[in-house]
Amino acid sequence: MNVGEAAHRSGLPAKTIRYYEEIGLIRPQRAGNGYRDYCGDDIHRLAFLRRARNLGFSIEDCRQLMALYEDRGRASHDVREIAAAHVKAIEEKVRELWSMRSTLQKLIHACHGDERPDCPILDDIAGAAEADGKVASAPT
Question: Could you tell me which residue ranges the HTH merR-type domain spans (predicted)?
Answer without folding.
Answer: 1-68
